[in-house]
Fold this sequence. Notes:
By secondary structure, the chain is an alpha+beta fold. The protein has five helices and 14 strands. The longest helix has 17 residues, at 24-40.
Amino acid sequence: xxxxxxxxxxxSAVTVELSRDINEDTNKLIRYISSSLDEKxxxxxxxxxxxxxxxxxxxxxxxxxxxxxxxxxxxxIEDYKPSTINGGRLFHIxxxxxxxxxxxxxSVCAHTGxxxxxxxxxxxxxxxxxxxxxxxxxxxxxxxxxxxxxxPRLDTPRTLIPEGSxxxxxxxxxxxxxxSPGGWRLIGRTPIRVYTPHSDDPILYKAGDRIKFxxxxxxxxxxxxxxxxxxxxxx
Length: 235
């Protein structure tokens, strides 16, 4: 990891940049460093926030320093073995791609040249890696969207997108965990609440887990009887 960079973020945080390319191997190492910092309970470390290919570590400058953290993180990297990271969990999440729940399906079809059934088939085929969470609580940035589905964001974002909406924005797809503004093209909606703020574990999944969508009918969506299926993933 000769290209690792430690970037100061004021006097109480440091960003560890391992690469500028988004890929699963780099993200796996980022998650390993983050979990190792949590397990080691290093003096002065407040929290670590993993992203696509970097990690920001917040610390108390009265208890530790950037130099000490850099030495500790380099030791963690030296001990890294890909097999030490578990495969996470795979969440099978239901999505209704019908009618009013997919207001941008036609524009996605027009841009990609695909039929509605082809869009649904391609969208429900991959197991999407959750690279990181951000933007909103429980908003998962997913990797693995089929290139044939890549569609530009809306020229003018919506001021309000319903909770559970599933959209495509450029090379990414994801679930809006809360009603919010947004510019992604909406192709469906899930009845599953992926963010429940008052529960002990408010976010359904975490970085390193995976999501696979499966289609449901409008009646199934309205009844809300569909469940999330969860399975462990082998590393």
